[in-house]
Amino acid sequence: MSRSRRKLEHIRHALNREDMGVNSFDEVEIIHQSLTDIHWDDISLQTQLGELSLSSPLFVNAMTGGGGEKTEAINRDLAIAARETGIALAVGSQMSALKDEKERQTYQVVRRENPDGIVFANIGSEATLEQAKIAVDMLEANALQIHLNVLQELIMPEGDRDFSERLRQIEEIVKGVDVPVIIKEVGFGISMESTRQLKDIGVSYIDVGGKGGTNFSKVENKRRKQPFESFNQWGIPTAISVKEVKSVYPECNVVASGGMRNGLDGAKAFVLGANAFGMAGHLLRILIKDDLETLVEEINHIHHEFKIAMMVLGAKDTYMLDGKPHIFTGRTKAWLEQRSTG
Ligand code: FNR
Fold this sequence. Notes:
This protein is α/β, with parallel strands linked by helices. It has a single domain (3-10, 43-338), classed as Aldolase class I (TIM Barrel), CATH 3.20.20. It is built from 14 helices and twelve strands. It has helices at 3-14, 69-85, 95-99, 105-113, 129-139, 150-155, 166-176, 192-200, 216-222, 238-248, 263-271, 281-289, 292-312, 330-338; strands spanning 28-30, 47-49, 52-54, 58-60, 88-90, 119-124, 143-148, 181-185, 205-207, 253-257, 276-279, 326-328. The strands form three sheets. Strands 4-5-6-7-8-9-10-11 form an eight-stranded parallel beta barrel, surrounded by six helices. A two-stranded antiparallel sheet has the order 1-12. Strands 2-3 form a two-stranded antiparallel ribbon. The longest helix is centred in the C-terminal third of the chain and has 21 residues, at 292-312. The structure holds ligand FNR. The site of ligand FNR has 26 residues, from helix 1, strand 7 and helix 12. Ligand FNR is lined by residues 10-11, 14, 61-63, 92-93, 122, 145, 147, 184, 186-187, 209, 213-214, 257-260, 279-282, 284.
């Protein structure tokens, strides 16, 4: 199957809400506070993610590109929505555009529609340093995401099988490009062990891409004659993954993503120590099932909801949410106790 056809199938499967598992943010309760001391107009959504100054804690996470006219149209709409709401946007994997120059247009539309916005480039961990630089230049990107998707590749019949050089290649890119490099998962989460390995090679931005939303085991299994269904529940839930990363690397710039549904999930992620949150499937579903206008309204609604949480918790700035009183329940509590993430 061609790469572009596969991308369109990913979109189709990702639109299916059945693929969503249990969401760990339902097992994080923030403790309500009755005596807020701030004025609504003083609340700022301005967010610092390491070197990146974002006007919102939310961004559109990596999804499409390289699949021809359809994916170009989706990228155009995502870029317009990002521009209209002032949020950052990551493009989908540019690996196909690195191999075929004709595909570049489907990504570059993002920069054309949003010339002054914050844009993240996106490549796989198989990329070389030279390819990483081309991916960044292609979009005049403000940051570069490198996705880790071992399990997805293993379930894909045509997926990669050799990961022996990946950590070394990531290290070369982190040290060799002059924009921040964000290492991201695609729905299976980042553990404390993987965090230590990433820290050792100089990574300082991690997008946990945890379990709870788009599920690439299920997506890829649907495309197989003989699926590996035993892996459909695999992965580290997003809220837990944020805790895992922070527990061994407190100064890391952490992005929460994977099943983020609303502004309150975003605020909970900040309480756990995240510095930004990304949404992919939820925003794509709205764009495709409704339209661009509804997507813009939804992003504004998410901002509003995030601000309500900030107000109730007495946080004028997004970083002030970090560590606000909260408890864990259910499986999330059991997990954190056994992994001693503090
Ligand atoms: C993705 N995702 C993704 N990630 C990445 O780094 N490069 C990519 O090319 C893609 N492609 C892609 C296509 C589609 C259709 C979807 C829905 C997702 C993964 C995405 O960025 C994110 O990590 C996961 O989808 C989990 O987040 P959500 O969807 O639960 O918010």
